[in-house]
Design goal:
- The chain has 364 residues and is an alpha+beta fold.
- 21% of the residues lie in helices and 38% in strands.
- The chain has 3 helices and 20 strands.
- It has helices at residues 12-31, 96-124, 130-155, and strands at 36-37, 39-41, 43-65, 71-76, 83-84, 89-93, 158-160, 165-167, 177-178, 185-200, 212-216, 225-232, 242-250, 261-277, 282-284, 287-293, 299-310, 313-318, 325-327, 341-342.
- The strands form 3 sheets. It has a 6-stranded antiparallel beta barrel.
- Strand 15 and strand 16 (287-293) form a beta hairpin.
- The chain is elongated and about 155 Å long.
Length: 364
């Protein structure tokens, strides 16, 4: 059966063109409609500053217990991991031979002194010459020096704790023959700990001796240790452009140990700085920019330099002035020179204003 051919007659083509034109106009109007955004006035806020660094702990005093001479251990008093007082006998070597030599030197000195006393009686009677008594006095002095040398040698057979501290482990036994320079154990003064860390040279003017620091460690979560800056290295590393700082931390309960890694924070006086919402910052390679809104509600791209981040806010170091308006919500919908429609932010999306004090972190 023959099917009739469908054709457009009359006003049908015109109606079709009108529909297409209306659709195109509607799409164009939608594409160029001003996007709805929220604005944020660039503001100044007094932000507390903190210098943050990682440092390592070391004991206030720390030495290796090492003999200066070779010898055989006859007494060993090295309780591992125990605290010992200053002057505590730690190791005694076999000193019998040296003790005999020292005793002989003491006897020789005593005899020389006895002869000198007798000769001083004779000189009053002019029974001996002045030269003879002077020679005897020189002999007494010489034997006295020899006795001091032998006594110093004898003292090396005993190792004592030079200060109160905590002993480390050892692998020594009574009867063992040890050489000079052998490290028997270590002794650390853990009552006070040294915390050494590095800071960039840009922070040099902010660090002074006596300033308070706080430090935390993964070994003691939730615990904050307090100390004071004791010294500042007068040299700056030319390669890393950093300098060393040393702080002293009290350690009465012995929780801090040498070698521990600690996160250090130094409080600085609050400084007024410009802040904008973090979501206002856009990235283009290594550059950061915002969209600034003018009085005609048109936006312009503006490069900025940013500083520390505090939650929902970022410090702007350069590129903006206080009071300028930047795009907050809807920043991904705008482009250079485009008109925008300013709307009120929803309470859920409106960022809370920064207040003091802030838990900020420095970028030093």
């Amino acid at each position: 059966m023959h099917q009739p051919e469908l054709t457009t007659t009359g006003k049908n083509p015109a109606i079709l063109r009108a529909i297409l034109l209306a659709t195109l106009v509607a799409l164009t109007s939608f594409a160029f409609a001003a996007p709805a955004v929220t604005e944020f006035p660039v503001m100044e806020s007094a932000l507390p500053q903190k210098l943050v660094a990682l440092g390592n702990l070391s004991a206030n005093q720390s030495i290796n217990i090492t003999p200066q001479i070779e010898g055989r251990i006859v007494n060993l008093y090295l309780p591992q991991g125990a605290r010992v007082p200053a002057g505590k006998l730690l190791v005694q070597l076999d000193d019998r031979e040296q003790a005999a030599i020292t005793a002989q030197a003491r006897i020789d000195l005593g005899e020389a002194k006895r002869q000198l006393a007798y000769m001083e009686k004779l000189i009053s009677k002019k029974a001996i010459s002045v030269e003879e008594i002077q020679a005897q006095r020189a002999r007494v002095d010489r034997l006295g020096a020899a006795l001091q040398a032998e006594q110093a040698q004898l003292d090396q057979y005993i190792l004592q704790a030079p200060f109160a501290g905590t002993l480390s482990f050892h692998d020594q036994s009574v009867g063992a023959l040890i050489n000079a320079g052998t490290v028997l154990t270590t002794l650390d003064d853990l009552d006070t700990m040294k915390l050494t860390f590095k800071l960039p040279e840009s922070s040099l003017s902010h660090v002074v001796r006596g300033a308070t620091i706080t430090a935390t460690s993964d070994a003691w979560p939730g615990t904050t240790f307090t100390g004071t800056i004791d010294s500042i290295n007068p040299r700056i590393d030319p390669l890393s452009l950093t300098f060393q700082v040393r702080a002293m931390l009290a350690n009465p309960d012995g929780r801090l140990l040498p070698g521990m890694l600690m996160r250090t924070e130094i409080e600085l006086p609050p400084q007024k700085q410009l802040v904008v919402p973090a979501r206002s910052i856009m990235f283009d390679s290594n550059q950061r920019y915002v969209y600034v809104i003018n009085q005609q509600n048109k936006v312009a791209r503006r490069l900025v330099t940013t500083g520390q981040t505090n939650g929902e806010y970022i410090v702007v170091l350069s590129g903006l002035s206080a009071g300028e308006r930047v795009v907050n919500e809807g920043v991904v919908k705008v482009s250079e020179g485009r008109q925008v429609q300013i709307v009120s932010p929803s309470p859920a999306n409106e960022p809370s204003l920064p207040s003091s004090p802030l838990a900020s972190r420095g970028t030093f």
